[in-house]
Amino acid sequence: MSKPAPQTLQVIYKEQISLHMIRLKLYGKHINENIQWQPGCYVKLVIPNALSSDEKPKLRTYTAKSYNPNEKVFTIDFAIHQPAGPATDWAINASVGDEIDLLGPGELKINSAEGDWYVFAADMSALPAAISVMESLSADAKGYALLEIMDEGDKQNISIPKNIEVQWFIHPNPTIKSNQQLDALKIIKHLEGVPNIFVAGELSTIREIKSYLQGEERFNNAITYISSYWKIGLKEEEHKHAKMENP
């Protein structure tokens, strides 16, 4: 079975939404009307003029923050870091009218309708996914959002249920592993019922949080989505290998 062909999208809007986050809106005239998009799902971007060692175009994975089927517009937020990788570099220099190819979207393996309360733990790389899911929850949803950003200027105004308690943690140097989310997770008050837990971010941090959750009796019945989006010191292709070797 052949893989679906990439869809060519055009930049129609660009905004710096925080100190280290750029938002692009991408329009695709020929986007399939039957695509299966859900809050927090991912897409693959084919980075223009960026080739891997085998001369294939470089693919980079990003959360589709939102998708408007009537306007055929994807909204994607890019965390800006230095040194800039090919996708970050493209986003920084993108202008309205520029084009990029997109594959997907791919399914996010979490059902946010399950469980009685929520825990979200996300760094800058996973912030768009976490916010996308939180903004889709019912108004009576409750729980915690443990969000790690690089600077006070990276805080965002987000439209989430009022009973989701947001805690922002400042970690200015993402190349150094952080324990702030894990430490916060250890002391949150356990609410009544089954927790639905979303954890995403840097690989070594994610593994420590996963290990803690697996060894903590109070989370034995939790519904969990745990995924690393990157690893300190590795490119995306290298991160994929590291993730597969020791998930």
Automatic annotation (TrEMBL):
<protein>
    <submittedName>
        <fullName>Siderophore-interacting protein</fullName>
    </submittedName>
</protein>
<dbReference type="InterPro" id="IPR013113">
    <property type="entry name" value="SIP_FAD-bd"/>
</dbReference>
<feature type="domain" description="FAD-binding FR-type">
    <location>
        <begin position="4"/>
        <end position="112"/>
    </location>
</feature>
<dbReference type="InterPro" id="IPR039374">
    <property type="entry name" value="SIP_fam"/>
</dbReference>
<dbReference type="InterPro" id="IPR039261">
    <property type="entry name" value="FNR_nucleotide-bd"/>
</dbReference>
<dbReference type="Pfam" id="PF04954">
    <property type="entry name" value="SIP"/>
</dbReference>
<dbReference type="InterPro" id="IPR017938">
    <property type="entry name" value="Riboflavin_synthase-like_b-brl"/>
</dbReference>
<comment type="similarity">
    <text>Belongs to the SIP oxidoreductase family.</text>
</comment>
<dbReference type="InterPro" id="IPR017927">
    <property type="entry name" value="FAD-bd_FR_type"/>
</dbReference>
<dbReference type="Pfam" id="PF08021">
    <property type="entry name" value="FAD_binding_9"/>
</dbReference>
<dbReference type="InterPro" id="IPR007037">
    <property type="entry name" value="SIP_rossman_dom"/>
</dbReference>
